[in-house]
Amino acid sequence: MNNVHTEFPNLPNTIHPLDVLVVAPHPDDAELGMGGAISKLVQRGRRVGIVDLTNGEPTPFGSPEIRAVETAVATKALGIQWRYNLGMTNRFLEPTLDNRHRLAGLFRLTRPRWIFAPYWSDAHPDHVAATELVEAARFWSKLSKSDLAGEPYHPERIFYYFCIHLKLVPQPAFILDITEQWSAKAASVDAYQSQFVIGRSVEPPSFIEKLREEAAFWGKAIGVRYGEPFASKEPIGLKSLDSLI
Known about the structure:
Blueprint: H1 4-7, E1 20-24, H2 29-43, E2 48-54, H3 64-78, E3 82-88, H4 97-110, E4 114-118, H5 125-140, E5 157-161, E6 174-177, H6 182-190, H7 193-196, H8 207-221, E7 227-231
Parallel strand pairs: 1-2, 1-4, 2-3, 4-5
Antiparallel strand pairs: 5-7, 6-7
């Protein structure tokens, strides 16, 4: 078995098991796509973690140091206790065997019941690569007789959040009510000033306002104020209809 401290330097104390692990190509993707859901899961007592595959740099107004500070602020806004950066290369993210090995090992160490990944169709190559990587690593994480860190483990489900660069209207499998969590999501996104405030037009609507309008659109679809859409490639089973809106 690989030495965990060598393969995953500075790995935070892992909660065994995590209920949910959100995989983000860059810092801010998890917040944009499902910041409300993350906050809601934490408030419901779920153990939630985020793994950022890259540091998101270079960008026009950011730097690794700036993004690290912004990420810490966003993490606090969401209330999560576990976040890690795998240190892959922004703009060159690919579902290579080495990257698959690392992510599968992380799945085995954190043992999440549910994984959330970016929606599989996108104009951003990093997002597409990240989702392919997640799906392959999920399969690899259950393999025996391997040199992966941790013990074999297979996460139950992958759900997909929408943080896309295509001009399309998603057709979600479900929409989550985030009315009470909107302020936490907005605060987590607003933490990334280098990405969504600096260098952008000061004319309304602001980026946050556009995001609010999008959340209101999905909320209206289910009869609430704000919502977040999610997709699934596998059927979603229900034990009862009690939780339906």
